[in-house]
Specification:
With 744 residues, the chain is α/β, with parallel strands linked by helices. It has four domains: 108 residues, Carbon monoxide dehydrogenase alpha subunit. Chain M, domain 1 (Helicase, Ruva Protein, domain 3, Orthogonal Bundle); 196 residues, Rossmann fold (3-Layer(aba) Sandwich), CATH 3.40.50.2030; 164 residues, Bifunctional carbon monoxide dehydrogenase/acetyl-coa synthase(codh/acs), Chain M, domain 3 (2-Layer Sandwich), CATH 3.30.1650; 226 residues, Bifunctional carbon monoxide dehydrogenase/acetyl-coa synthase(codh/acs), Chain M, domain 5 (3-Layer(aba) Sandwich), CATH 3.40.1470.10. It contains 22 helices and 23 strands. The strands form six sheets. The chain has a six-stranded parallel beta sheet, sandwiched between helices. The radius of gyration is 27 Å and the shape is globular. The protein binds iron/sulfur cluster and zinc ion.
């Protein structure tokens, strides 16, 4: 390691720690010592500090311990003349930097969060929230997401910035962005991508943390939480968390442009996690081998990379990053002319970019998947009946019917909707293609850029076939797809499809908890909530909202040893509360003997536990003799005196907490929702986003309860954010909860 770099890292650490001290002092004066400090929607406090040291920072006065710890890691700034055995001090400086950076970001969140980019109004994200961390963490662990890239600085040009990011996205690599590099213009890489119209956000696997290097610490906060969630490590096991990342998480830092002292200091922190640093400038090597699996620091001065032009150089740069970290790319091959991968699922196709659309307001589009006998279909037969996109004008619309026929020895008609539902994200994975809706309200938009690369209607069939065969190979052997674009064909087929949808609806409606003999467990979340298990029944879906009873049933067929297992309903204890001996036994045996009883339909007596991915939290409001339901998407204060993210800390982690329960939002419309406590009539307050997005289901439930105007009697954040505001509203509306039996 170069002595100059060690000195730079130590100098950078001194700067960041001093800045933290100043900002903390200012925050203490402004807010006082008891002001709660937390990142939004996380149960891991300030996660790098919490994970590596075990210290849970909850309020401003708690930060002192960490600041003192950071200071104790600082070696004196080395003078040029002084010889230092510098590796240890440089790594310590890296740790001190990460801690101080996280404290600064913690204070920043008190001052209104993360700013919009000055150049163009793009919103910075700040840290990744827990639900997203969990969703990506699972992908990192099972290999769907090969790794992540933390990019700091500014690319040589906007074109190079876009090229680098697209190369990473198409490999499914998560892109985390922070900082800029002043000598390459007053722009950050986020500015560069914004100028080129690149969509950023969770949906596209690009997260712009913030405009400065300090915000890059969120990459390590993400890595730390992944290790705790998925590696089964405990907060405070710092060394194990670093090793887990070194061997399990394929991440690297890409430094674009000049590397200043704070970047060196932050890089020193990243190297402790085993994440190598690749720079596109000529920086000296910072660290000896051994800290990371391959080289710790790689220099690739951009203009010296062999290549015909800058775009080719950018491609080689990314290629080298992947080699240095040993990232394994495993993307299912889909034979289409555009890039394909989960990073493109969240992309939108705007009106100006639109080549042609199917469905929406101007045409009909449906998708219909049915099971056939294996002799009736031919695998790989993809047929277009009718005209292609070439026949419509720029921005035009065409009718489309997608008929997918599948066969396989273990296929069942019950799995038709499960497979059909996947068409949505299968098609969305294509770059420049957007899919919305399902069944006969599907809506597909194709961008000019995709069309220009040769994307045509039959590629939709190619995508569906390739993905079904790769994900459902245990139940499906053959896939045939026919695409209809003539109006008459579409109208004729839509009748067939609607008849099938109607039958399916009836089958699902008749599928009640009483009509089946088995429920299913879901243990997917045990990787981070080892004492939590979901019990999924036809009338109660998993609390994450993404697993219903049929999904679990199909998943069990596909992987009998996987996370979903059947639980036979035996030994009824209480029909109203939904308690069975067999379920209690199963739950006890599968929660490390921590949960002895679970009722399916009560929140006051032995309610189901929660992992942390709930779409909503139900919580009692004793003063109103009712409950409130707050949505994950609602950041406002609730009458319980807590926001969703604070409540999430109480409801999660697999503990049974009578009076608080996480649920999937569709459970709100179920006959079994709080059946013991009086159902929907108990709800006195609900986030408005739920009232709006669930309007139909809630209205149906209200009518079933015999109070058709019930929704008007339920308050929301626009009416009340305190109990004092809530009660008069309920009185005035004559809410039924006020006269119901006492909740407890
Ligand atoms: Fe996790 Fe429950 Fe959803 Fe399964 S059903 S993924 S355990 S929240
Ligand atoms: Zn979960």
């Amino acid at each position: 390691m170069s002595r100059r770099i060690a000195a730079a890292a130590i100098r950078g650490a001194h700067q960041v720690v001093a800045q933290a001290e100043q900002e903390i002092q200012a925050a203490l004066e402004k807010f006082g010592p008891d002001k709660p400090v937390a990142f939004p929607s996380t149960g891991y406090y300030l996660p790098t500090v919490y994970g590596l040291t075990g210290h849970a920072i909850e309020k401003l006065s708690d930060v002192r311990v960490t600041l003192d710890h950071a200071k104790s890691l600082l070696a004196p700034e080395p003078s040029e003349a002084l010889w230092l055995p510098y590796l240890g001090p440089a790594l310590d400086a890296g740790m001190a930097t990460l801690f101080a950076e996280e404290l600064i970001e913690g204070v920043r969140s008190l001052n209104g969060g993360w700013p919009a980019s000055t150049n163009n109004g793009a919103k910075y994200n700040g840290p990744i929230d827990d639900p997203q961390m969990r969703a990506w963490g699972i992908q990192l662990v099972d290999g769907r997401m090969p790794g992540f890239a933390a990019i700091v600085g500014t690319a040589k040009s906007n074109e190079v910035a876009v090229k680098i990011v697209r190369e990473l996205q198409s490999r499914g690599i998560l892109v985390l962005l922070a900082s800029g590099s002043p000598e390459r213009g007053k722009k950050t890489i986020v500015d560069q991508l914004m100028e080129e119209g690149v969509e950023m956000g969770y949906g596209t696997y690009i997260v712009p943390f913030g405009p400065d290097t300090i915000s890059a610490v969120h990459a390590l906060g993400f890595a730390t939480r992944s290790a705790i969630s998925f590696g089964g490590l405990k907060p405070g096991q710092g060394e194990d968390i670093l090793l887990y990342n070194k061997y399990r998480v394929f991440a690297f830092v890409l430094a674009l442009g000049e590397v200043d002292d704070i970047k060196y200091a932050t890089a020193a922190g990243a190297v402790s996690y085993g994440f190598p640093v690749i720079a596109d400038t000529n920086i000296p090597n910072i660290f000896p081998n051994g800290l990371t699996i391959y080289e710790a620091v790689v220099r690739m001065p951009f203009d010296d990379i062999p290549g015909a032009d800058d775009l080719e150089r950018a491609e080689k740069l990314v290629q080298r990053c992947i080699e240095v970290r040993g990232v394994k790319i495993r993307i299912s091959k889909v034979p289409i002319p555009v890039s394909y991968g989960p990073a493109f699922e969240g992309e939108r196709v705007r009106r100006e970019q639109l080549r042609a659309e199917f469905g929406g307001r101007r045409s009909s589009c449906f998708e219909f998947l049915r099971m056939r006998d294996t002799s009736e279909i031919e695998d790989g037969k993809i047929t277009l009946v009718g005209q292609d996109m070439d026949s419509v004008d720029q921005g035009g619309a065409l009718d489309l019917g997608i008929v997918v026929e599948v066969a396989g020895r273990k296929m069942q008609t019950d799995f038709e909707p499960v497979l059909e539902r996947h068409i949505h994200h299968f098609i969305n994975g294509a770059e420049g293609v957007q899919h919305m809706g399902q069944r006969d309200i599907a809506w597909i938009r194709v961008a000019n850029a995709a069309y220009d690369k040769g994307f045509r209607v039959k590629h939709l069939g190619e995508i569906i076939r390739a993905r079904i065969l790769s994900e459902f190979s245990a139940i499906v052997d053959k896939v045939q797809v026919t695409l209809y674009t003539e109006k008459d064909d579409v109208q004729e087929w839509i009748k067939v499809a609607r008849e099938a949808f109607r039958e399916r609806n009836e089958r699902v409606a008749s599928l009640t908890d009483d009509s089946v003999d088995v429920f299913y467990s879901c243990a997917l979340c045990q990787s981070f909530a080892p004492n939590h298990i979901c019990v999924v029944s036809p009338e109660r879906l998993g609390l994450c909202g993404s697993e219903n009873w049929l999904d679990c049933k199909a998943a069990y067929e596909i992987y009998p040893t996987g996370p979903n297992r059947p639980i036979e309903k035996k030994g009824l204890i209480d029909a109203e509360k939904g308690e069975w001996e067999s379920i209690n036994q199963f739950v006890y045996a599968n929660t490390n003997q921590s949960v002895e009883r679970v009722t399916m339909y009560s929140m006051m007596d032995a309610p189901m536990t929660s992992c942390g991915c709930f779409e909503c939290i139900v919580m009692m409001i004793p003063e109103a003799n009712g409950v409130m339901v707050v949505s994950r998407e609602d950041p406002s204060m609730t009458p319980a005196g807590m926001t969703f993210s604070t409540l999430a800390g109480m409801a999660g982690g697999g503990v049974q907490a009578p009076g608080v329960m996480g649920i999937g939002k569709y459970f709100l419309g179920s006959r079994k929702f709080l059946a013991t406590e009086g159902g929907l009539k108990r709800v006195v307050w609900m986030s408005s986003v739920l009232k709006e997005s669930m309007q139909e289901e809630l209205q149906a439930a209200a009518e079933r309860e015999g109070i058709p105007d019930l929704l008007d009697k339920i308050a929301d954040e626009g009416v009340a954010t305190t109990v004092e505001e809530l009660l008069p509203f309920l009185e005035e509306k004559g809410h039924p909860a006020l006269t119901m039996d006492p909740l407890f």
